[in-house]
Amino acid sequence: MTFYDDIYPFYPLQRTSFIFSGRLLTIILVFLMLALSLFIILPGIRGKSRLFWLLRIVISLFIGVVIVALNFTNDWAEARMTTNATYKSFSNSVINAEIGLHVGLYGINVTLRGEPVMQFNETIDYNEMFSWQDTIEDGYKDALEKGLPNPILYIAEKFTLSSPCGLVFQYRYSGRYASATLWTAFCCWMLANILFSMPVVLYAGYMMLATAAFIFFSMASFSTIMNVPRCVFSIGTDTFHTEYSHSFWLALSTGVLCAIIGILIVIFDLLMPEKIKMAFSVGADGCEEEEQLYMGAYLNSVFLDGVTVSSMTSKMTSVSW
Asked: Using an 8 Å Cβ cutoff, are 73 and 24 in contact?
């Protein structure tokens, strides 16, 4: 026991703390660079359209980054408690700590923070990630080999395949379908942005409504875990269970925002189609293009029907078929 300075069990003290997702950081940086590049072109837009374009860029990028980031956040559901719990296996040492469980679409994040942090000459501040994208069994085995504290092992064991709670099946499949519908919402968001730059603003509004619908579908998919009997987590003398957290409510607010934008665009397009086109900087050009198309179609029909077409040049010339 003294070989590792009375650290139980007989494993060296190792940390693989999960602090911040590298994927989230990459997503944020990509969208920040995209926003910066779009802000650079704002000075080239004249008049009141500049403010409208700024608002469009901010709202659109906010929706896009939220949809992508929600796939990789770890706080769709969470639970916290402060209790006295056994610290290590084969030890009677009891610590007072805050224990947290954070559930994402691809795994769980278990935190353990001592109160105070320094206890038994050790810093008790753990933040461990367990992913079920492939299998959570390997992560649980690694946690056992590292000798992680008992509360972390207890919670991770509840999500293994051998656990009678069956949490891994509930959360894995609900998270899988929620992620799939979120990626579909992201595709609808991209199509909406493409259509906004074309004289078909009405269809862009429809795609915003589709984006909102798929975000709501992802929430409904994740919510299925709340409709099954909940597994109670008992640590020490206290118990806790998971509730909806920040990512879930952020998805709800983003879906509502997309729905409001889509409804407003559809209504304005029905009531004042020309003004809504001009608001999206396609009014004048769009009208000119439509007039050219109609004129071209008219001249072609006249030409094919054998009617004389008059064209204004330096002098009048009549051409008959």
From this structure: yes
**pLDDT tens digits along 90-139:** 777 788 888 999 988 888 889 888 888 888 777 888 888 888 766 778 88
pLDDT: is 25 or 291 the higher one?
25
Closest CA to 150 of 242, 102, 84: 84
Q: Residue 17's pLDDT is what? A: 44
Residue 76 has pLDDT above 80, yes or no: yes
Q: Which of 91, 105, 104, 108 is nearest to 233 (CA)?
A: 108
Are 96 and 78 in contact by the 8 Å Cβ rule? The answer is no
CB atoms within 10 A of CB 311: 9
SS (H, E, C) the chain: CHHHCCCCCCCCCCCCCCCCCHHHHHHHHHHHHHHHHHHHCHHHCCCCHHHHHHHHHHHHHHHHHHHHHCCCCCCCEEEEEEEEEECCCCCCCEEEEEEEEEECCCEEEEEEEEEEEEECCEEEEEEEEEECCCCHHHHHHHHHHHCCCHHHHHHHHHCCCCCCCCHHHHHHHHHHHHHHHHHHHHHHHHHHHHHHCCCCHHHHHHHHHHHHHHHHHHHHHHHHHHHCCCCCEEECCEEECCEECHHHHHHHHHHHHHHHHHHHHHHHHHHCHHHHHHHCCCHHHHHHHHHHHHHHHHHHHHHHCCCCEEECCCCCEEECC
Q: What is the pLDDT of residues 48-58, one digit of tens each?
A: 667 777 888 88
Beta bridge partners of 94: 86
Task: State the CB neighbour count (10 A cutoff) for residue 208.
Answer: 29
Assess contact for 111 and 219: CB atoms under 8 A: no
In whole angstroms, give the CA distance from residue 289 to residue 295: 10
Q: How many CB atoms lie within 10 A of CB 147?
A: 19
Which residues 6+ apart lie within 8 Å of 75 measured at CB?
A: 102, 103, 104, 109, 245, 246, 247
> What's the pLDDT at 229?
67
